[in-house]
Design goal:
CATH superfamily of one domain in chain A: MetI-like
Shape of chain A: flat
InterPro entries (chain B): AAA+_ATPase (IPR003593), ABC_ATPase_HisP-typ (IPR030679), ABC_transporter-like_ATP-bd (IPR003439), ABC_transporter-like_CS (IPR017871), MetN_ABC_transporter-like (IPR050086), P-loop_NTPase (IPR027417)
Subcellular location (chain B): Cell membrane
Helix content of chain B: 25-40%
Structural class of chain B: alpha/beta
Order of helices and strands of chain A: HHHHHHHHH
Membrane topology (chain B): Peripheral membrane protein
CATH topology of one domain in chain A: MetI-like fold
Low-confidence stretches of chain B: 264-277
CATH class of one domain in chain A: Mainly Alpha
Distance between the termini of chain B: 28 Å
Number of helices of chain A: 9
Mean pLDDT of chain A: 93
Number of strands of chain A: 0
Order of helices and strands of chain B: EEEHEEEEHEHHHEHEHEEHHH
Number of helices of chain B: 10
Strand content of chain B: 15-25%
Main location (chain B): membrane
Largest sheet of chain B: 6 strands, mixed
Oligomer: heterodimer
Family (chain B): Belongs to the ABC transporter superfamily.
Strand order of the largest sheet of chain B: 8-9-10-3-11-12
Strand content of chain A: under 5%
């Protein structure tokens, strides 16, 4: 017997999914807000080769990169509040877990991009009389960031999808809300088809945007 | 002496156990063009890179325009604060073998960035400075091109303009034609000769003996980290006194064209006789 699709029931509960989508965006956005500056700062500090600090940062970066995202989410939700004696909502726990993990990834992306800029570029900027901050800002980073755009996009996509793990601590992002909608409508197939299309559409749009940005900042090579 | 731009005294440089510079004494006067010759490994590039502190020199003193660079500590060693080094580099222009133009900027931007970020010029002022200097090296029409769209010779001339835009007291040239196709060498050498005629003080590492002969005021031959022989181009290139200098020059002039070919006007990039300059 062929399955009879019925999306109407799901659309009647679209307010649940919309709220979930909004929370997913919020989560990804706030995690990214942590990850980008953190990644850049860690990359800079590691490149500065400050004896003990660089080593500590390398270890910490590796811990965050090797831990499964779901483990970090549980840890920040259950363990961290006890250890730190604070009390915070699921949103904060997930933001910290994913923000710090993506920050660790981003640190490596930034570091790799900066290192990949030719030695001659550093020397030419230095020889002009630039200090290290000016040199980084006007000569090195603009070249490094251009090269980093594709891997940047990959990392952001990973983060965006990892927000769905927040469902495991019942945070009301889109997958959690879809669960609720599915159990109210008894239409899990329709509900999760819509959720899959939601992820596909948003990521597809961002990928187009990224490609447009890439073209816009491209320089002849 | 008042017209000394650069005075180097007893300069040493070690890389680990390697003693690359073993006591260099060298003076360059204002408006003078000094060419440094020497085999690879003789320390000539290292000397140049020490002079604008891309490499940190060891023992020795460097005076720029009569002032000691760095501060002498109690133990006699010299400390070089970063701020002072940045200020010095602004007054000593450097051109590299590999051009090292900033690939994400147009030729014009490459020349503008120094004056804007370091000399505090406005965008409009920097653009005028860039135009004047690109004009000087004959490449103004490529102002809007990116480095990748230019030939090696054109890129190198933009690099010269970039250094000139800082209005340096002197310029260092580190084998600036060695990475170029032979047919592009002439345009860069011509630009450098023009600079010489405009009175720029220049210290040039090169393998172009013809250029040294025709453009230099003084030629310095380096060997094993010391100045082995030094004098006018006629003295060093035509009548070298030391055996090692003679060997070096012989290997560089092993194959030569017959004289009458030199007498033919070989086109716009002729650098055959001193009188033509």
């Amino acid at each position: 017997m062929a399955y009879e699709w019925d999306f109407a029931a799901v659309f009647r509960h679209s307010d649940l999914l919309l709220e979930g989508a909004a929370n997913t965006f919020r989560l990804a956005g706030s995690a990214l807000l942590i990850a980008l500056p953190l990644g850049l700062a860690v990359a800079m500090l590691r490149l500065a080769r400050i004896p003990v600090l660089s080593w500590l940062l390398a270890i910490t970066t590796d811990i965050f990169r090797t831990a499964p995202s779901i483990v970090l989410i549980y840890w920040f939700f259950f363990a961290f509040p006890i250890l730190a004696g604070v009390d915070f909502a699921g949103h904060t726990a997930v933001t910290l877990a994913l923000g710090l993990q993506t920050g660790a990834y981003m640190a490596e992306v930034f570091r790799g991009g900066i290192i990949s800029v030719d030695r001659g570029q550093w020397q030419a900027a230095t020889a002009l009389g630039m200090g290290s901050a000016t040199r980084m800002r006007t000569i090195i980073l603009p070249q490094a960031v251009r090269r980093m755009i594709p891997i940047f996009f990959t990392r952001i996509t990973e983060l965006y999808k990892a927000t769905s793990l927040a469902a495991a601590i019942s945070y009301a992002e889109i997958v959690q809300m879809a669960n609720r909608a599915a159990s109210e409508t008894f239409r899990p197939m329709e509900t999760f088809t819509i959720v899959a299309l939601f992820f596909f559409t948003t990521i597809f749009c961002v990928s187009r945007l990224v490609r447009a940005i890439e073209r816009r900042v491209a320089v002849p090579e | 002496m008042a017209d000394e731009v650069l005075r180097v005294e007893g300069l040493h440089k070690h890389y680990g156990p390697l003693h690359v510079l073993r006591g260099i004494d060298l003076t360059v006067r204002r408006g003078e063009a000094v060419v440094i010759l020497g085999a690879s490994g003789s320390g000539k590039s290292t000397l140049l890179r020490c002079l604008n502190f891309l490499e940190m020199p060891g023992a020795g003193r460097i005076h720029l325009e009569g002032r000691l660079v760095g501060r002498e500590a109690r133990d006699g060693r010299i400390r070089y604060p970063n701020r002072e080094l940045s200020a010095l580099r602004m007054r000593v222009g450097m051109v590299f073998q590999q051009f090292n133009l900033f690939p994400h900027m147009t030729a014009e931007r490459n020349v503008m960035i120094g004056p804007m970020k370091l000399r505090g010029l406005s965008e409009a002022e920097a653009r005028r400075v860039a135009a004047a200097n690109l004009e000087k090296v004959g490449i103004l029409e490529k102002a809007r091109s990116y480095p990748a769209q230019l030939s090696g010779g054109q890129q190198q001339r933009v690099a010269i303009a970039r250094a000139l835009a800082m209005e340096p007291s002197m310029m260092l040239f580190d084998e600036v034609t060695s990475a170029l196709d032979p047919e592009l060498v002439g345009e860069v050498l011509l630009a450098m000769r023009q600079l010489r005629e405009d009175g720029m003080t220049m210290l040039i590492v090169t393998h172009e003996l013809g250029f040294a002969y025709n453009v230099a005021d003084r030629v310095v031959f380096m060997e094993h980290g010391v100045i082995h022989e030094e004098g006018t181009p006629q003295q060093v290139l035509l009548n070298p006194q030391r055996p090692r200098t003679r060997d070096f020059l012989r290997s560089h002039t092993l194959f030569r064209l017959p004289e009458q070919m030199h007498d033919d006007p070989p086109g716009p990039f002729a650098l055959t006789t001193r009188e033509q300059g």
